[in-house]
Write a structure and sequence with these properties.
Elements: E1 11-14, E2 23-26, E3 32-33, E4 38-47, E5 50-56, E6 65-66, E7 69-71, H1 78-90, E8 95-105, E9 110-118, E10 130-136, H2 149-161, E11 171-174
Parallel strand pairs: 4-9, 8-11
Antiparallel strand pairs: 1-2, 2-3, 4-5, 4-7, 5-6, 5-10, 8-9
Pfam family, one: Zn_ribbon_Nudix
Protein name: NUDIX hydrolase
Keywords: Hydrolase
Length: 178
């Protein structure tokens, strides 16, 4: 950020009066320009004990397997974002069962939220965001070809607890920098 969106004057990066953290703020009009973590909302879609994974057709991590998900949009709930992203990446609408995992990535200013989701049938389709989509049994998951460590954490948590009856425990974890 270089200029104030309120008055167009140059911004200063320092601790504004009354705050404790350095932020972009305008010395002319006093507006503070907050930058907060972004939420990524995803699904772990399941059909008859098989997990749906999408092969990424876009960067980052082009060609790697992932769960349907992406950045939450303004004006939508986490659940709405997870359902929208699942539609955009795999052309189906699952039923959200429960929140399964919350994974913090403070080094990237992100929080990843994963919903366990039931598929009504095995009908899905590739999209501009996914070059392939497959259903995997737990022992077939391509662990070495997963796109992100957050996806790996959510999948491992699900596989470890999928045999339980009723709600699965919630994973709350932080992934440190490499």
């Amino acid at each position: 950020m270089k200029f104030c969106s309120n008055c167009a004057n140059p911004l200063v990066y320092s601790v504004p009066p009354g705050d404790q953290l350095a932020r972009h703020h305008c010395a002319a009009c006093g507006m503070v320009h907050y930058q907060n973590p972004r939420i990524i909302t995803c699904t772990v879609p399941v059909w008859k004990n098989r997990i749906l994974l999408c092969k990424r057709a876009i960067e980052p991590r082009l060609g790697y397997w992932t769960l349907p998900g992406g950045f939450m949009e303004n004006g939508e709930t986490m659940a709405q974002g997870a359902l929208r992203e699942t539609w955009e990446e795999a052309c189906f609408r699952p039923t959200l069962r429960q929140l399964l995992a919350i994974v913090d990535l403070p080094q990237y200013d992100q929080v990843h939220m994963f919903y366990l989701a039931d598929m009504e049938n095995d009908q899905f389709a590739i999209t501009p965001e996914s070059s392939a989509i497959e259903l995997f049994a737990a022992e077939e998951i391509p662990w070495q070809s997963l796109s992100f460590r957050t996806v790996e954490a959510a999948l491992k948590h699900y596989v470890q607890h999928q045999h339980l009856q009723g709600p699965l425990p919630l994973l709350e974890t932080t992934i440190p920098p490499h």
